[in-house]
## 1
Amino acid sequence: MPKSSFYEEEVYPSPMRQTWNEFQRNHIALGGLWCLVFFLLTSLVGPMLLPYGPLQQNTDALLLAPAWAANGDIEHLFGTDALGRDILTRVAHGCRITFGVSFILVILSMLVGCSIGAYAGMSRGIRSSVINHLLDAIMAIPTLLIAIIIVAILGTGLMNAMWAISLALIPQFIHQTRDIVRREFHKEYVTAARLDGAGNNRILFHSILPNMIEMLVVQGTMALSVAILDVSALGFLSLGAQSPSPELGAMLSDSLETAYVAPWSIALPGAAIFLMVLSINLVGDGLRTALKNRLTQ
Amino acid sequence: MLIYLGRRLNLLVITLLILCIASYILAFLVPGDPLINLSGNPSPSADQSAQLRLMYALDQGYVAGFWQYLKLTLAGNWGLSLTSQNPVFQDILQFLPASLELSFYAMLISLLVGLPLGIMAGLKHRKFADMGILSVSLMGFSVPVFWLALLLILIFALQWGMLPISGRLSLLYEVPHQSGFMLIDILLADISDKSAVLNDAIRHLVLPTLSLSIVTSALVIRLTRRSVINVMSSDYIKAAYAKGLSHAQVFWRHGMKNALLPIMPQLAMQFTVLLTNAMIIEVIFSWPGIGEWLIQAIYQRDFPAIRGGMLAVSSLVVIFTIAVDIIIRLIYPLSKRQFHAQV
């Protein structure tokens, strides 16, 4: 029986709900979201479900082909590498490290970048001019280059690479937040709040921040894809995570020597990075389009 | 315009000065004796040590020391590399053109591929062609560049044996170093088998250029498509249609210029992304460029070389950015509206 509605009441979905409705209409982006959820689950519970450890070596099965190849074995679904380590296990652990690390450092740089950006957006005169000009110069340098330079100073290692990439990501967030804050400050609802007697801080947290969050999420997904690519690139160059660690980029550089006999040990970890970044980009694009559609309605 | 030029040059000088200060501070932050880190002389005798201290003005405080360092840097005296004992500046001059050559060709190809595809996708917005191009570009944009390079090596070099795996030129050939750009050097050089050498150099170029340009073309497609869509839905395009112009006339007379000019700065910015990706690609293909050199220096903790390489690459990027900014300002009058620096 269809639900009957007693009242001819119009439903106004909340802004978040509207964005979600818009987002849902884009099936490809929705697929990306499912893929992202899959990677999230893999990195959270995947390592617990697998019987092997990421460093555990099985000397009876070196360079075993994946299970779907003719000489593969179902015990090692993705095959093994030159030291007999199970690649599926390592990829699951690698997703945890690469994805988790990137997620943490995006959150970190978002917090720092937004605080500085909000400050820069509200300040006037020489202070804002100095921040703007320095920032524009730094923004021009690609994040990976900044990260390589910082790693060169701090020394190699996953921790240092994390610091380097989060420092390199901060300018984007400052730039974005500063632009939004500056733009919103001229709008009427801010003036209304100001007429009510609200101070700068109150306006920032109660009026502008709720309007900013969605745009920050979009920016965050973009930064997340950059961060994953950078973390794995540094791992690949042995500047980030070091060799036995199952970080996806480090795994790739590990299996370089056996690339010819065991192409799957290159293809599978790389494919994991690729799918992860692809799904994040799909979600980011979908969110951005949804947001744009909502705002132009 | 003069005020704008002044501001930009001011920004350029200040940024370069900050980079210099950072590189000077680096010599004190990294482990080891600052004197060794600055000069690159691993075990100076007492005599040399005193001389170097005088040269770098280490005993007269940081400001005098930095002033001295700045003068030496501008004069091209960047110290010696700790591992090879070559002058860092000469090394950079030798390796940088190889990277620039690679990035330049990759940029050229990605513009040649990306711009037409982007325009096509933009014109056929929400049609089948648009979806196809967009999904391909999204994939190209998400693929990690080092994985792509490895896959290309696996397929084209190892499986099919069509193209060489690494290096810039086969060891059989010897080309004298003149400009550092391999193809120009070959054309200039006085060698017997010129066409064979040229052929070999191009075969070495294919894989690195391809892996670099796939990622960049994807970015170019996205930028162009967005801009074309925005322009084609604007009022003056509707007015042009209302005047009775055909699709081709509207696009070539009104759409094209207005779509491409605003994204010129962003397109040019892709070159810096390209240069960074080229650093990774160089390591994979053993391409003797600045990236491979800098990363080797990082492995060996060769601080004078790290300092020099970092200074060279980042100043190059900053100079390039600001130059592009000024050129855009000259040819695209609408950008005058945004007075503040926008990168």
## 2
Amino acid sequence: MTEVSPSLGSRDPGASVQRLSGPRRDRAVALASHPLTLRLFTALILFSAWEYAGRVPVSAGFPGFIETMKAMAEMTADGLLVAALLITLQPLALGLAISAVIGIGLGIGMGLSRVAEWLMAPPFIVMQAAPMAALIPLLVFAYGIGLAAKVLTVCIMAMPVIVLNSYLAIRQTPASLIEMGRSFQGSKPQIILKIMLPSASPVIFAGLRLGAAAGFIGAILAELLITPTGIGDLITYNQSIAEYPKMYAAIFSVIALSVLFIEGLGKIEAAIFRREGRRA
Amino acid sequence: MTARARPAIADTPIIEVKNLSKTYEGGVEALNDVSLDVPQGKLTTLLGPSGCGKTTLLKIIAGLIPSTKGEVRVSGRMVTGPGPDRAFVFQDFALMPWATVLRNVAFGLELRGVGREEREAVARRHIAEVGLAGFEHRHPHELSGGMRQRVGLARALAVDADVLLMDEPFSSVDEQTRRKFQEDMLSLLSARGKTVLFVTHSIEEAVYLSDRIVLLSRRPSRVAEVIEPDIRRGDDPEAIRRHPAYLDTVETIWQGLKRYLD
């Protein structure tokens, strides 16, 4: 799958660079333009700016990068951070799993059936547009301050984008592919399973990634607004006793976790679809 | 006389279209009382100005869209939907981008429940016949437009239908590739005795390929004329394109179609 026949080649922009310059310069260019190098470079700039702002200082309550990392190392060493993350992960994992299963199911249903679309598309469009965090007090009122309210907070944040992406993904199956399936006498289930779902899967996965990001926001919101547990507890507690490096360490850790999780989803997707050679 | 006008009735028709009309929702009248026969084992072209309903007619014959009035019979059986006696070749290729050439070509058989080994063996044979041997495990995005349509043709051939319905199969293929592809397709089809119904808006293509050309008028379409180019197949393709009969037929059709343009 990697090598391309001569008649098809030369479309790869890397190929023309190779001819123009020497192999050593080429390797340097390749290394410098490698995505990982670029990402590390971005991180370096960001963290330097953070450290600089901490040293100015912007505010007494704003520690620099190094100080925050020290606090994070400390909290990791005494097990506090990991314990807190595990607590936060509970409603998050539950909420995301529920949102993914129900959301993708509903979205696909809406994509396939006009009636389901009529019934359910408007609420989800409203849900996506509305600031759902405003509903958290309502959830507490109905479900108390326990796990249920937190799981639901994650769901209302994550589900709309998952549903709407799945629904649009199914709807956007190229008409000619469906016609092709019909012309070869494919049954309705065959057309859905062999044509519509594979065609829709990249957009469904994109919705899942966006939903996961929204779910992280929901989980932290729930911990800050409902009852302080896990990372939310670390943030509020350390803020209240003016341990700002620890507070920022807690915030940083949840951001890092979120990024890693969403990257992980991307990797899973790539593992499934790279074999199939899709580029988009 | 190089091109003979004939009634639209053949001796051994495999496709019979009788008084077919199609009005789309919203009142667009695509076809108006079209009747035509397609002779068995021949290549028949539907030719007409763009937007004249050629593709609509082809898709009704394929059973992909319903007609408003009239009937279509293939081998005497009324068409109510797609069937194993017809295979479609799409203008935009309609290849699954996530599947390899092999799976795409075998897909018609896969939908019919043919076992993996058997369908892949059949697919490999047809991939080789359209000149794509060695590309079995490539994906469509790795192929040129012409190669992609060869995949589409191989997929249609793999199900071994009596009738091939081709919807402007070369319109997304560049000119040089198209000529080579046309020649290859003719030699591929001549050995198989397939009936081909071919939609095109290219007069040259129609005259070069066809045993019979059905000229359609502007929308709502009717059959304006049926022409059978008096050109011997099997000649050197370049000679055909220079042959006076070829050039005269192109000219006759152009004169006939010109009145539909404004």
